Model the fold of this input.
Amino acid sequence: MPAIVLIGAQWGDEGKGKATDLLSDRIDYVVKFNGGNNAGHTVVIGSEKYALHLLPSGILTDGVIPVISNGVVIDLAVLFEELDALDARGVDVSRLLVSANAHVITTYHRTIDKVTERFLGKRQIGTTGRGIGPAYADKINRVGIRIQDLFDENILRQKVEGALEQKNQILAKIYNRRAITVDEVADELLSFADRLKPMVSDTSLELNNALDAGKTVLFEGGQATMLDVDHGTYPFVTSSNATSGGAATGSGVAPNRFDRVIGVIKAYTTRVGAGPFPTELFDEWGEFLTEKGAEFGTTTGRVRRCGWYDAPIARYASRINGVTDFVLTKLDVLTGIESIPVCVAYDVDGTRMDEMPVSQTDFHHAVPIYENFPGWTEDITGVRTFGDLPKNARDYVIALEEMSGSRISAIGVGPARDAIVVRHDLVG
Done:
């Protein structure tokens, strides 16, 4: 049975929660392998809407075991707020497993994130201010706090003290903020230990044993390809590997166990935060996509920047991730547009580039070269088979498929849980 990686193929917010939910009744485990509570999934089930920030979206499906693995950084207050909110709505959250090796976001990570971003002024990255970057920085600098440290108070206090020796110098002398005490950090973390302990396990062993037993495991990436710290639009990126390779390092499951990589991509393009965005729209069409697509961040509430579909980015994502199948979301948002532009290449200082420029400077100055496709006016939210889509909608999907590097196996046609057209089996 397969190990499936599901990633975002643009700058995030592509609808990964919907894609995960589509698969969830055929899988046994859903694993969050990177990021923290700086990205969200919105899943609509019947009349209920669920906004998830830290938890894998598979937690909404009975019988699926949700896993937060070692590649994630965890804000424990957010974790338990989210669990309590779901529990209050009747969702069974008792199955959650948390890696003992996952790193913890502390008070000082959140503080440093916010003051550093303000200090950058016009050079701001556009972080969410939730401490994600500083937590990952401490992980790399080998001064991080891990989940397992909460169960040895002496070790925890020693590690917090070591981390604060430097952090307090920075806070006090550079940012003119008060020093943070060891006790306030350690006591807050220890307050979660008893409730957390039953969830903690060797998730790498659990997942490998599950695959050995023939279980199906879905690895759900946070953020997206163009926000990957190595392969995205650096420095306007997240602090983890959001591409398919991150699923291996972020979970302790070897790369040769993955059978399929599903890339989720919108029928247009959005991004949140600063950074280059060649197809970004500043006119009435940008407003149209924002309003009709409800392009507001699940986690931050920030308005997403909107633009037309970018085929070079799709090809790049396909190549970097080894995408076997795309899930194209929000096709319904384009209904009513008479002629739909698609970026097929870039003009960089008079030179045509069919692929993403290797230079960030070139990408920043890239001007999209568009090809226009006829639109449709028919309501497609009730369509469930590809043949029932309007001809122009079918032609649009086929054109995107031909220029994007991988087959489009499913198409989102509305916000409802079942508003999806399946062309190819994503699991079998």
